[in-house]
Specification:
With 289 residues, this protein is an alpha+beta fold. Strands 6-7-13-11-12 form a five-stranded antiparallel beta sheet, with helices on one face. 46% of the residues are buried. The chain binds flavin-adenine dinucleotide (FAD).
Length: 289
């Protein structure tokens, strides 16, 4: 169940990143507990990832045990207006199920390539919707195996922000409250959002979505574009020609990508006075020790 020396480039949408010393993909909460015990017995650090769509893993990879909660641990149940999702479920799948059951509130997530767990940690959002508008509570385990549960009020949600980003926790389940709606109208909205994405975003190239958070009073893409940085390239990393907020991987290294992130932030600060902060989460070591 636990594999050794696994390239994480295969686990990220950027297709970048060195190896995990060890990788576990638990299929149940019992397997998750076993993986945590295994790491604890060996004194290994634990890192959790979801579908890897908001991650830059450095070229040296991640030491210790990486636990990937994606796909497995992804069961879905609907009772009335309450949808409960395993943290590994894909947001696209959850929003499709909600539409089929005539439940509105998740159409914004139709094209977000993350998991329910990663989406909740990031408070993912688009087109006026955010996961915090539907999340009622979350459950999971701490690295020592202790279970925890937080209500939405306890989660400290903000723009692409939650307390889960600052605690060592492994989400296993998220409960959401939706509102009744017409399945065909919800599906039409999902199609429209996905049409807009395909029109504006470089979906044919590896990326982690918007690289930077939206700064107060503006859009990162607009500032990057205004500084003339569209198409700027360092090694195999490039500011997308199609959408300046997306940095794409044309076949480079994580070091290229991080250097480009730093260069873009430096130039935008220099030319506009606005400090961009990364939305992408950076994990791991530049060089394997
Ligand atoms: C083409 C494209 C378009 C995108 N569009 C959007 C968009 O419109 N809106 C938006 O908000 N984002 C967007 N993103 C970014 C990304 O899809 C979201 O941030 C998504 O919610 C991340 O989920 P993930 O499962 O991939 O998490 P990962 O990238 O694997 O991880 C993100 C963070 O969550 C943590 N994490 C993941 N799973 C768990 C878990 N089970 N328990 C505890 N911590 C966990 C990780 O440690 C990490 O800190 C886009 C990305 C791409 C590639």
């Amino acid at each position: 169940m636990i594999r050794e020396n696994v390239p994480l480039s295969a686990c990220t949408t950027l297709r970048l990143g060195g190896p995990a010393d060890f990788l576990a993909e638990p299929g149940s909460e019992a397997e998750l507990r076993e993986a945590l015990t295994w790491a604890r017995e060996r004194g290994l650090p634990v890192t959790v990832i979801g579908r890897g769509s908001n991650l830059l893993v450095r070229d040296g990879g991640i030491r210790g045990l990486v636990i990937r909660i994606a796909g497995s641990l992804g069961g879905l149940t609907v009772a009335g207006e309450t949808l409960t999702a395993g943290a590994g479920a894909a947001l696209t799948e959850v929003s499709r199920l909600a539409a089929d059951r005539g439940l509105a509130g998740l159409s914004f997530a139709a094209g977000i390539p993350g998991s329910v767990g990663g989406g909740t940690v990031m408070n993912a959002g688009a087109y006026g919707g955010e996961l915090c508008q539907t999340v009622v509570s979350v459950e999971g385990l701490r690295p020592d195996g202790t279970p925890f549960r937080y209500t939405a009020e306890e989660l400290g949600f903000g723009y692409r922000e939650s307390r889960l980003q600052h605690e060592e926790v492994l989400l296993t389940r998220v409960e959401m409250r939706l509102t009744p709606g017409d399945p065909e109208a919800i599906r039409a909205e999902m199609r429209e959002f996905n049409r807009r994405r395909a029109e504006k975003q470089p979906l044919n190239l590896p990326s982690a979505g918007s690289t930077f958070k939206r700064p107060a009073g503006g859009f990162a893409a607009e500032l990057i574009d205004r500084c003339g940085l569209k198409g700027l390239r360092i090694g195999g990393a490039q500011v997308s020609e199609k959408h300046a907020g997306f940095l794409v991987n044309l076949g480079g290294t994580a070091a290229d990508f991080e250097a480009l992130m730093n260069e873009v932030a430096r130039r935008v600060l220099q030319e506009t006075g606005v400090a961009l902060t990364p939305e992408v989460r950076i994990l791991g070591e530049a060089v394997r020790a």
